[in-house]
Design goal:
The protein has a six-stranded mixed beta sheet, with helices on both faces. With 268 residues, the chain is an alpha/beta fold. It starts with 5 loop residues before the first strand and ends in an 8-residue tail after the last strand. The protein has nine helices and twelve strands. The chain has a single domain, classed as Rossmann fold. The protein binds adenosine-5'-triphosphate and magnesium ion. The site of magnesium ion has 4 residues, from helix 1.
């Protein structure tokens, strides 16, 4: 890793329609060494927040600085060398093999003629191994299952070798083995100095693998942010999800275990 990088959002607000803020007054930072989990109900603004943090959308108030520069004003190539963004869904437009999709992640590092060298292919191979996608390398991306595609896209983002990763629900289509593998990989990356922000609906994986959490609710602000034991509280979660949420200790992992109570059954 090179010099430490820092992404800083200062009291940002964003609205798709005038007068309807998705969020406002949100401040957050992302630095190397941490896995920040962004959680909250459907429509609470997690993807929008990640898009604003990535520079894809400009905030209507406040600012997002990447190493002191407004992120949405940086050139895509300059930004991509430091920051990678994995959207919630990606629709491929070209027919490419899985390996070619992973190699696309190397283009911010390519020479002026756009060519990749042996070092780039080595990085791509390593990212296939890290995501257990080697056996998919020659498959057409279009023909992969949802979870296989998701792992290949994670490999492509990793191949970009960004200092900071913004990942929108990277494990939503993954089986239990690959969920744990991907979150474990994110933790290892953070230990190696990368900074990771990850949106997830899996509060139990968030409790286990994230070093801190940001909770968005139905109102336009952060409901809570901090370590899992401060954010994953029954009262906060019950308000955020408009459900009776219970939190206890997981008997095996000894991290927090979150579950929603089922609505009472109608008498027959
Ligand atoms: N392009 C858009 N134009 C107008 N409104 C949008 C647009 N994208 C999202 N929204 C609205 O903004 C709000 C936040 O959406 P966002 O996708 O950020 O939520 P989310 O927390 O990521 O939800 P989910 O958990 O379902 O992915 C929602 O009310 C959504 O309908
Ligand atoms: Mg979303």
């Amino acid at each position: 890793m090179t010099a430490p990088h820092r992404l800083e959002a200062d009291r940002i607000a964003f609205a798709y329609e005038p007068g309807a803020d998705v969020f406002r007054d949100v401040s957050a930072t992302l630095e190397g060494g941490e896995v920040a989990g962004i959680v909250g109900p459907n429509g609470s603004g997690k993807s929008t927040l990640l898009r604003v943090l990535s520079g894809m959308l400009a905030p209507k108030a406040g600012g997002v600085l990447l190493d002191g520069q407004p992120v949405h004003r940086l050139s895509p190539r300059r930004r991509a060398r430091t920051l990678a963004f994995l959207p919630q869904s990606v629709d491929p437009v070209f027919s490419l093999s899985a390996f070619e999709v992973v190699c696309l992640g190397r283009f911010p590092h390519a020479g002026t003629m756009g060519g990749l060298g042996p070092d780039d292919y080595q990085v791509a191979e390593r990212c296939l191994r890290d995501t257990e996608t080697e056996e998919l390398r020659d498959r057409d991306f279009f023909t992969l299952s949802g979870g296989e595609r998701q792992r290949v896209l994670i490999a492509s983002i990793l191949a970009q070798e960004p200092a900071l990763l913004l990942l929108d629900e990277p494990t939503s289509a993954l089986d239990i083995h690959h969920q744990i593998e991907v979150f474990g990989l994110l933790r290892r990356l953070a230990r190696d100095g990368y900074g990771v922000a990850v949106v997830t609906h899996d509060l139990n994986l968030a409790a286990r693998f994230c070093t801190r959490l940001l909770l968005l609710g139905s109102g336009p602000g952060l409901l809570a942010s901090g370590p899992a034991h401060e954010v994953l509280q029954e009262s906060l979660l019950s308000a955020a999800y408009a459900s009776a949420i219970r939190v206890c200790d997981h008997p095996i992992t000894h991290t927090l275990l979150v579950t929603a109570e089922a609505p009472p059954e109608e008498p027959e």
